[in-house]
Amino acid sequence: MNPPRQTPDPVPPHTIGAAFVRGMLSGLRARGEDCGPWLREAGIAPQALEQGDACVTLQQFALLLRTLMLRRDDETLGLLSRPMRCGSFGLQVRAAAVAPNLAQALRHVAHVFRLLQDDLELVPVKEGPLGGVALHFHNPAVAANPYLHEMLLRVYWRLLAWLAGGRLPAARFDFAYPQPGYAQGYGPIFPAIRRFDAERSAMWFQAEHLALPVCRDAAALRRFLAQAPVNVIVPERDRGVAGRVYGYLQQNQPRWPGLEDVACALNMAPSSLQRHLAAENTSFRAQKDKLRCELAVQRLRTTELPLVKIADELGFADAASFQRAFKAWTGMPAGACRGQRRPA
User: Fold this and answer.
1) Is the pTM of this model over 0.90?
2) Same domain, 261 and 291
3) How confident is the chain (344 residues) per 10-residue block, as mean pLDDT?
4) Claim to verify: residue 193 and residue 273 sit in the same structural domain
5) CB of 278 within 8 A of CB of 258?
6) If we measure between CA atoms, which residue out of 247, 248, 268, 244 comes closest to residue 257?
7) E strand or H helix at 56, and its extent?
8) Which end of the chain is more exposed for a tag (fewer CB within 10 A), N or C?
9) For 10, left (φ over 0), alpha (ψ -120 to 50), or beta?
């Protein structure tokens, strides 16, 4: 008699700590807004969010971020005294994309930002072999919110990296506030040396990189702006090409672009993308199925959506195809996963 087959646990969704979600909402809450409806729309239980060890999936985080920006027409989520209307980040990106190199692109971005906001400036800085950008605040009340520092440093580092072709290794991040209790979550978001209680918040990289050419054409600019600024705020899931593929799929679902589309977005030939993924012991199909599995688990455990609706969201032709794939991914039927339902 064969021993009973053990059912493995489903692949857990990649998550982000609730402290970062609370930071995202901090500007709106300070203005007295009820964020409960926004959270529920993104599949996040408001009461669970207040638990110290709570997490949300990256998909929930991205959906909440996009919804807040679009519905409130403010890309800085109430964190500044004057809203940054939707499209403000796009103006900065367009100004930077015509620059010959990163140094000039940074000056263009800082100039447009200064035209849009009075609370602070983006200041190009240099320190020995390092160059970077610092946040220079004019409004102490605005400067008191750590999440604003986190968001701006993340956004402009990843923008400069994109302009340079996708890679701009950070050397250091400085934060002009004490180390927060959730600082252990900074690792994937700020992958470099981190200094707290600094004189000013800044991100640093090798100054020689400022001479790198801006290498994005009009088509790449259109694709980037279609997802901006969410695509530079949401943390990347992994490092390397696999992480970039996963991130692009995550940002574009439920459209589910194919291999050729993703390769084009990453400025690679499809065959080159496949070779890079193989070198990282993965494949395009594996990254797609990983994301679909994570989204399926999240949907099954936190919603009452019928299987046919989840199947459609994940790009399956019908519910039966989805159920076969889910069983292959996790070793359990979709209905059994729904039976393990728990708060978001």
Assistant:
1) no
2) yes
3) 38 70 93 90 83 77 88 93 94 94 96 96 95 96 96 94 85 96 85 94 95 86 83 66 80 82 86 85 88 82 84 90 90 79 43
4) no
5) no
6) 248
7) strand 55-57
8) N
9) beta
Domain co-membership, 178 together with 271: no
Tally of CB atoms within 10 A around 214: 19
Q: Say if residues 160 and 214 touch (Cβ distance below 8 Å).
A: no
Residue pair 316/322 in contact by the 8 Å Cβ criterion: yes
- Give the CATH number for residue 263: 1.10.10.60
Predicted local distance difference test score (pLDDT) of residue 11: 39
Number of structural domains in the chain = 3
DSSP type of residue 209: G
pLDDT of residue 115: 95
Task: Using the Cα atoms of residue 212, residue 149, residue 26 and residue 51 in order, give the sign of their dihedral.
Answer: positive
172-174 and 193-195 as β-strands: parallel, antiparallel, unpaired? parallel
Distance (Å, rounded) from C-alpha 204 to C-alpha 201?
10
Q: Is the Cβ–Cβ distance between 280 and 273 less than 8 Å?
A: no
Distance from C-alpha of 248 to C-alpha of 121, rounded to nearest angstrom: 30
| DSSP-based three-state secondary structure for 173 | strand
119 and 32 belong to one structural domain: no
